[in-house]
Amino acid sequence: MADRYDVVIVGGGVMGCAVAYFLANDPGFGGTVAVVERDPTYQRASSALSASSIRQQFSTPANIALSQFGLSFIRNATQHLSVDGDLVDLGLREPGYLYLATGAGADILRRNNAIQRSCGADVALLSPEDLAVRFPWLSVDGVALGSLGLSGEGWFDGYSLMQAFRRKAKALGVAMIAGEVAGIDTADGKVTAVRLADGQRLSCGVAVNAAGPRARRVATMAGVDLPVAARKRCVFVFDCREELPGCPLVIDPSGVWFRPEGKQFICGAPPPADRDPDTDDLTVEHDLFEEMMWPALAERVPAFEAIKVTNAWAGFYEYNEIDQNAVIGPHPELRNFLFCNGFSGHGLQQAPGAGRGLAELIATGTYRSLNLSAFAYERLVENRPLLETNVI
Predict the structure, then answer these.
(1) Cα separation of the two ends of the chain
(2) Is 264 helix (H, G, I), strand (E, B) or coil?
(3) Which residues cross the membrane (predicted)?
(4) Interior CA angle at 207 toward 201 and 213, to 5°?
(5) Residue pLDDT, tens place only, 114-165
């Protein structure tokens, strides 16, 4: 292990490895890159515990563009991430996302649809009658409108994407360092080094915060405030006796979502606000399913009245407390300290675009492919939130 790198990336999950890959793959860069990961087993990593879905149904063009690039990248993963000719199979399925709205939310879906279609997203609005014909297993009671992604939406193997980024980056010469970051040295408005808990000091020209649920702690080490919390999200796996042909990922007006997972289903929902702290705890809260999720599931799909939970897990959700959108790019005063944080539940799908954008910024000083300036840190301190109405 060297004691100096041009770029040190704090966090070896999907974000950190994506930035590393795009830097190492950029023929105009030519610098040295190190990724520091505190837990190489990834047992508690967001990338390993995510439901790993991808959609274009956002309400902001910047988010739509990020996910569109992510979709193209995932569809062509072998072309981008193969090492020694190996197939990279991310298990992408594209049955779509289906947002359901009551009368109170129908106009939001209509406004979002206009934005999505203007950005090239293949999304259709469906009346309750249309929904009943297309999905006869779905109850449309209380539903005024649905929004269905006809292509380019679904789910994939997020852990395999992270590992493929990591493997390819390593093959391209990126140093993968197992260690916990304990401090960040700064001088004259710049990061000068990243210090590890074992005493190792890594001097650097650029430091990237890709620390996921620990992003706020890493930012604090550099004297920077970052309003990104580590929230917990529980996912439940259940059996259903009946098949649901053509089932997409469904988001109920209650906030409960579900989708197929092999022959079973998975579901989740944001917990009540008074049960959603910044936490390191990943204990599954089974009462959330019994009291909140199951009633909503049974009301929306009659076949879900008789289901059996077979498994459950909890993972971290890096929640931007200001506007639930990513923070990407440099700190305005500590210019060589870059953020790749706070994706608030859509990080895996946006990792390819965020990684490419940050790599271009580091290598050339500007965004060339995707303009990610909408996600800049400055908006947080200038009270210019990037409002997104499709947060789940």
Answers:
(1) 41
(2) strand
(3) none
(4) 100
(5) 999 999 999 999 999 999 999 999 999 999 999 999 999 999 999 999 999 9
In contact, 241 and 260? CB cutoff 8 Å: no
Structure-token match 């190492």, residue found: 24
- The token duo for 144 is 């005024």
- Interacting residues of 290 by C-beta distance below 8 A, sequence separation 6+: none
R_g of the chain computed on alpha carbons: 21
Alpha-helical segments (H) within the chain:
14-24, 46-49, 61-75, 77-81, 106-118, 128-134, 158-171, 215-221, 286-288, 294-300, 347-364, 378-381
User: Dihedral of CA 328/164/229/70: which sign?
Assistant: positive
Identify residue 293 by its one-letter amino acid code: M
The tens digit of pLDDT for each residue in 217-244 reads 999 999 999 999 999 999 999 999 999 9
Residues 6+ apart with CB under 8 A from 22: 355, 356, 358, 359, 360
4 strand-pairing partners: 203
Please tell me the distance from the alpha carbon of residue 259 to that of residue 242, in angstroms, as a whole number. 14
Q: Are 94 and 152 in contact (CB under 8 A)?
A: yes
Structure tokens at 295: 């009633």
Closest listed residue to residue 307, CA positions, set 363, 354, 267, 280:
267
What is the DSSP secondary structure assignment for residue 93, as one 8-state letter? B
Summarised one tens digit per residue, pLDDT across range 17-37 is 999 999 999 999 999 999 999
Say if pTM beats, i.e. exceeds, 0.90: yes
Q: How far apart are CA 233 and CA 250, in angstroms?
A: 17
According to DSSP, the residues that pair with 235 across neighbouring strands are 313
> What average pLDDT does this structure show over 270-283?
96
Query: Are 308 and 239 within 8 A, CB to CB?
Result: yes
